[in-house]
Each structure stands twice: as structure tokens, then as C-alpha cells.
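Components:
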Amino acid sequence: MSATTATVGGGIARKVGSLHRERRWALVTAYISLVFSAIIMLAPPFYMLITSLKTSAEIADQKGNPWIVRNPTLMNYWELMTDKLFQGFFINSVIVTVIVVVLTMVISVLAAFALARMRFFGSQVLATGVFLTYLVPDTLLFIPLYQIVGGLGLLNSIWGLVLVYPTLTVPFCTWIMIGYFASIPKELDEAALIDGANWMQMLTKIFIPVALPGIIAATIFAFTVSWAAFVYPTAFVTTPDQMPLTIGVVSQLVRGDTFAWGQIMAGALLAALPPVIVYAFLMDYYIAGLTAGATKG
Amino acid sequence: MAQVTLRKIVKEYEGGVQAVKGIDLDIADHEFVVLVGPSGCGKSTTLRMIAGLEEITSGDIAIGGALVNDIPPRDRDIAMVFQNYALYPHMTVYDNMAFGLMLRKFDKGEIRRRVENAARILDIGMLLDRKPKALSGGQRQRVAMGRAIVRDPKVFLFDEPLSNLDAKLRVQMRTEIKKVHQTVKTTTVYVTHDQIEAMTLADRVVVMNHGVIEQVGPPQELYHHPATKFVAGFIGSPAMNFIPVRLEQGGAALNLELPGGIVLPVPADRTRRYTPHIGRELLFGLRPEHLTEVRPNDHRENMAVFEAVPEVVEPMGMETLLHFWMEGAEICARIDPATPAEPGRGLPLAADMNQMHLIDPKTDRVL
Amino acid sequence: MAADGTLAAGAPRTAGHGRATTLERFARRRSTIAFMMTLPLILVVAGLVAYPAGYGMYLSTLNRRMTENIGFGNFEILFDSDTFWNVAWQSCIFAITAVVLKALIGFWLAHMLHDIPAKGQRKWRGMLLIPWVIPPALSTLGWWWMFDPSYGSINWLFSVVGGPQIPWLGEPWWARASIIIVNVWYGAPFFMIMYLAALKSVPDQLYEAAAIDGATGLQRLRYVTLPMMANIISITVLFSLIVTFANYDIVRVLTNGGPRDLTHVFASYAFQVGILSGNIPRGAAVSLFMFPILAICAFFVLRGVTRRNKEQM
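Structure:
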């Protein structure tokens, strides 16, 4: 009796041990992979930061490890931030982005509400069309748009960008808002209808507050996309004073053959800062928006 | 002044499917009417048409004497409690209840007075600052009712309000709903698929099936005098037994010839009623509670005794259910738990023939 | 009975003029509101996507000065040019290699993230997604600097471990590889996030059931994870194929098409021909070449998304 108990006990102990070992191996592999990939993923921004803290002399010095900084300086940042041209880039980016985000959210929330709740002639076709336009890349249509914007006299103007950026933001934002609105139970609008709400009240008092996470996610998307847009400003804007940050940093700080690498890296980091800050504080919404396109709607 | 009147209401969906096939119904002021039936019978559609959430294909609906066919829900002066409560998740309990009043531009003091009054009736005063997420199922149910009460509407509409609750809470909330109705006395239309809910709550029960009304009546009437086979089978639990029989003349009286050679005498007071059907194949309906063990000293008249061999015995505590088969028909009997019974061993059962029903299989109507 | 009376009194009133028209008006009002709400969207889609698409096709049939319609002349010239075929070839190599690598790395990382305790996942996920958050034109500047032949930090690392010195952007094949590396670096985190979301949506009970049925880790991957993720994998891959195929930023910043125009992709070549050299019609023709491939991908993405929605209903 006691003998059998002992063997059974031993058997159990052995099995637990092997399971434990298996799990530990999986964990070790996982952590090694993650550390390795994190190093690679973070190396470029890290190196940009290091470079931006160096003086031109230190950058030019080919001896020694380029991955460390010996005499850190904020000179590059200071020069950029006091530079009228760079300030102009920043202001242009802010103006364009803010207007585009507001326009996008108004257009897409209204349209998504109508498409998700008020079935009407052609609503299904329109919803599919919205998704298809989301799949049209900006590089497919930038040449005809160049002609159109030119025809309107808006080349070399931030207003030309304000006009075309919605093609980048509106389809996706509408699409994910349709998804968020569609996930609101139908009884909620029926309750609101009985409570005496009209369509506009239903949208502002019920749908927008309930779908707030979706609205935040869509806003973040619109913000990051307009901030990072590159093809349109590169094509439509050639005068420096109308350039937003992305193309400004790439084209105006990289001049001639002598590259002020420290300044270029500082400029790139400063330009990348707003989306990174938004991401740092609103990561969950950011990721929800990212994954919503394929899983919602 | 809030009767509800339905005249020849038809609801036809795209593709010609008729969910409701021309029903007539008069609901009196202060009445509590329950629409009951299996899923897909059109009861919810009927309720939603009264609410104005579904357009009616044809017919007329009047609330409080005024035709409301084309009137949007907000102007019908109705309140509705939904199956999933449909509480606004971003509003507190107070705001949920105040929302309808706010949209109707009531002044703040009046809103507060009404919400607090409803909260007192429903005993949810301490929940007013919470969000629906932080409430239990029963509490959400109360808030949903509170939202209806504050409006002081002409009609309450309930759409399966208890089906998301667990069994115990359901019984408790059932009592609660009845209590509220006794307090506020608002005309109520209540939809459920649960016949026990229907029986316990209703002044009158409307049994629906396949988009038509099978029968309207007080609970006891439906139980004792079902008009159709459907109602007979739907009301009562366990359901009524249906046994194919042949009605034959046996001297002065009538007899039912059951499969397996059993002959049951029909009570004398039914002779006149059933005489036109002599010689026909009919369905004999008898509720399990009227098929019991043979009691000594039982002096009731018209008790017919026969022997049955149960295949399954289900002790329920206060009673025991016996299941046996008779030529393909499953028969259920309810016997006293003290009676010894085991599967495969025959025992005598007494059928209370005063409670019998005969159904015409051609029309499914009770004769 | 009383209700009957009122109803009878009320009925003629509405039957006379009210009923049908009120109902009609209601329906009309609702669809009018809906139309007004979608109008801005329709304007954006029609004016800034549909119209330019048609206009682009028209543009591609004009001569350089846009004075004359030359039919398929632009396409014929492109077909005869070696550079164009190089561009087509490079676009395909670039897109396919980059997407495959991104998908594999993303899948691996998602699994590794899924394996560690839930508490730490957020932190790691946050770190690994950084490349996706930085505007690619800007992060590519950093890569450009890292690839620099004389000051490059990557070559320095190689020299430390005794590896070869690589002419990253100077030699065509290395330049192509560089572009792919940057694109994979930028895009793999996106795949990781999508796959992680998909992994998390697989119910744990399925794995437990599979484990009890005796499935090994690999079998669980083969018979549970992959089938459950098949749809999201294909949607993500196809979507990424579209975006990668049409990529512009990275090529523009990293090589600007060089060396000797050998790293141009459709987008950068169209830009070069259409905007920089001023031959708008031919530029339009170049970018139109992307259309068939993108359309096929888009069709399958749409099908995948529709199917996925049906599954979730």
C-alpha cells in the first residue's frame, strides 16, 4: 500500500518537473528573442539620439566607438529650435495636422453613424467603397492629384495639403468608426428613440460617448498619418516656408555635400516626437485603432 | 385613459415573410397583458409595433384612443424595458433615468423629484451615482424599470425583461414587477416566452403562435379551457399529454378507446357536447396533474383507473413524475412521492376524466 | 368597446390625407439626413479618389506637353525601356521579400510576446512597436546615417567583431538589401501587433482541449493556432503587400533610386519621371502599373475582411 503511493507520488513529481522545465525553456527562448529584437528595434532611434548630442567635430572624428557620446551637447537642438525655418516647418505641420484631424473626425463620425445605423439606398456599396479607398495607396494617385491641386493654384501651399490629406485619413477612420458604432447594441438607440432623442441627439448623447475609445483611436490614427505624410508634401511643396516637418527635415537639412548630421538627427527626432508622445500616453488606444481595421466593421 | 387597441395588424418583412398576420387586440386601461408564445411567434414584433420601433405593414394601432400608426416612438408616450436593459453605459443610474425627461425639457427639480420617487419604489436610491457596469443583473433590471417609471407614460412595454437573469432572481423580479404595477397601475404589455411568467403576472394572457393569436384570456381560463391544441400544450408544465383515441358509444355513455385496449369512460355531463363526434379519431388531452396514483377513499366521480408501466421515474421532491409510452405517445403522470414506483414495474393510475379535453386533429381546436 | 369607437372616429381622419404621406415623409426625412451625413465622405471619395483615378488614366494617354492624345504611347515607351523593367523587377523583389520577412518576424515575435507572463507583455509590446510609430521618412534618415560608408555605425560594429566592411548603399544588391532591411525593421512590429491580437482571440480552452487530446506544441501551432489565425494572416499580408509595393519614403530617403537607378520602385520612379523630370503623363503611366497588382490584393483583402466579419457575427 505504502509502496504504491510512493511510486505514484514519484511519478507525479517527475512529470511536474518536466512540464516545468519545458515552460522554462519557452520563457528563456522568449526573453532572448525579445531582448535581441528590442535591441535591433531601438538601435536606430538610439543612434539618432547619440548623434544628435554630438558636436560636428566629434561626428567627424572617425576614431573610437560611434555608439557613445563623449562630450554631449544640446547645441544641435538649440540651433534648430531657434531656426526660423525649422519653426516654420513645425507650425506648418501643426496647422495642417490639426485641421485635417478635425475635418477627418467630423466627416468620418457623421458618415459612419449614417452607414452603421441608418440603412439607406446604397449604404452597403458606400461602406465597401470606403474600405476600398483605404486600400488605395497615396503613391497611386499623387500625379493626377498634383495636376488637380496645381489647377486650383494650391501647389506650394499648406492648404493644398489640407485638401488632399483627408484621402489618407477619412477612409480608415470611417471604416473603424462604422465598426465601433455597429458594435453598440441596437436596443440602445431604440431606448434613446423612446426616450425622445432625435438622430442628432442620438449621435451626440449616446453614440459618441459610448464609442469614445473608438473616436480616440481614430483621432490618433488621423493625427499620426497626417503628421507622417511624406509623398504629398514632397510632391506638392517645394518652397521651404510652406513645408511641414517630414519633408522639411529631409530636404532642407540635407543640403549639398556637407551634411550636418547632428542637426539632421536632432531635427528628425524632434519631428518624430509628437507621434511618439501620443503613442507613449495613449498606447492602448493606438493599438486598438491599429488592429481595428481587420477585426471590426 | 390609456387603452391600447390593435386592429388587423400585419407585419410583413421584405421577401413576403409575415411575422404578424392580422391580429386584433383590445387592452383596457390599467390592464397587465402578457404576450406569450414560442420564439418567432410574432410577440416581440407586435410589441415593437406598439412601441413604434417597427413600422406596421397594415392595420391600425391606437394608444389612449389616438391613432399612432405614423407617430414616432418619442411621441407615443410609452416606455419600454428591454431584454438586455439597454442602459446607457456612459451615464450614471440617475442620468439614465433622467435622460428621457431631460430631452423633454422637464425642469431640474421635477426631474430630481421623479427620479427619487422611482428610486424609492424600486429601492435603488443608493445606486444613483453608479454606472451600469458596476451593477448586478437584478439592479440593472430595476434601473431599466426606473427609467420607464419616471416618464409616467401611458403604457409600459416589457420585452422579455427577465430572460437574462438567473432562475432565482427571475422569480424575485417577477414579484417586483407585479408589485410595481400594483403601485403605478400603468397599462402594461409584457412579452415573454415563459408561460409561468405569463400566468403569474398577467391579468390576461395572449397566446400567440405563427403570427396569429391562439387565445386571449385570464390565466385560469387558459389553463382550464384552452381553445386550441397549441394553447393546451403550451400552458402548464409539464405539458399536457396528448393520446390518440377513438370516441365510441358505450350504452348511454361515451367511451374513449385508447391504444393498447384501454377504455376510459367520458363523464356524463360531456355526452351532449361530444355526441356529434362519435366514431371519430380524436386527440385526448389530459394534464399530468390529472393523472395520479390511485388514492384509497377517493370519492371523486369520473375517476378512470388503468395500469401503466413507467419507463422513467423522476422524483422531484414534492411530487414524482412518471413517464411511459403508449403507442408512440409519451405520457407523463404526477404522483405522490410516497407512492412506490420504479421503472419497469406496472402500477395503477387514476385519470381524472372531469379534466379531460378532446381535440379535433383536423382543426386542432378543443371540442 | 370604447377603444373601438375612438379608433373608428380616428381612422377616416388619417386615411383621408395623413397616413401614406406622413410615412413617406418620415422615410424621406431619414434618408435625407443620412445622405447629408455621408455627403462630405462622398465628396472626399469622389473628388479626391475616384476622379483623380479616372483623370490619372486620361493623363497617361497624353504626350509630354499634354497637348495631344497619344493613346498607349507612354506605355509603349516604358515597355521598351530597360529602366522601367528594372523598376518593375525591383518593386516585386522588394515587396515580396520584405513582406515575407515581416510576416515571419512578426509571427515569431507575437508568439514570443504571447509566451511571457501577461504582466510584462505591455512593456515589451510598447518597446517593440516604436519603429512603427516614428514617421518612416524620419527613421530612414537615421538608417541612412547608420549605413554611411565612412562614418557608419553598422560597419563599425562589424569591424569590432572582425566582419567585412559592407558598401551598404553604394553597391546595387547591398542597396536593395538595405531598403528591405529598413522596411522590415519598420513593418515587422505592425505584423507582430496584428498577430498578437489574433493570438489573444484564440480561446484558451482550445489549447487546453488540444493539450488533453495529446497535441505537442508544434501540433497545437499547426492545428489550432494557424487555422484560427489564417484569415488575419492573409489580410495582414495582402494589406502589407499593397503598402510595401507602393512604398516611396524609404527609397526616396535611403537611395533616391541610386545607384544608377537600380533601386527605384514604381512610386519613386513615377515621382522621378512625373514630378522631377516634368513628364506628368508618363509619370502617371508608371504609377498606373501598380494598379492591377494592388487591385488583386485589394480584392482578396476585402474578401478576407468580409469573411471575418461573418465569422464574428
